[in-house]
Design brief:
Layout: H1 16-24, H2 28-41, H3 45-56
Length: 72
């Protein structure tokens, strides 16, 4: 079963978008663009949810990477 984690290797602010992209198996840029667009049109609701997710979603450990995955 897949779990949602904040990304350690693919993050700009807190790693939520990178973790969500890995969870959904799509490109991180698409998630980031959707979050920015939603934040602009939601009058702060998405920004609040992003901050809340940054607090509640655990950070992934380096042991959770698949075998052969290279991280920097």
């Amino acid at each position: 079963m897949k779990k949602l984690y904040r990304s350690v290797s693919d993050k700009r602010i807190s790693g939520i978008c990178g973790g969500l992209a890995r969870y959904l198996n799509i490109d991180t840029t698409i998630i980031r663009l959707l979050v920015v667009a939603a934040a602009l049109f939601s009058f702060g609701t998405v920004a609040f949810l992003y901050i809340l997710a940054s607090i509640l979603v655990p950070k992934e450990s380096y042991n959770s990477y698949p075998e052969g995955y290279e991280y920097y």
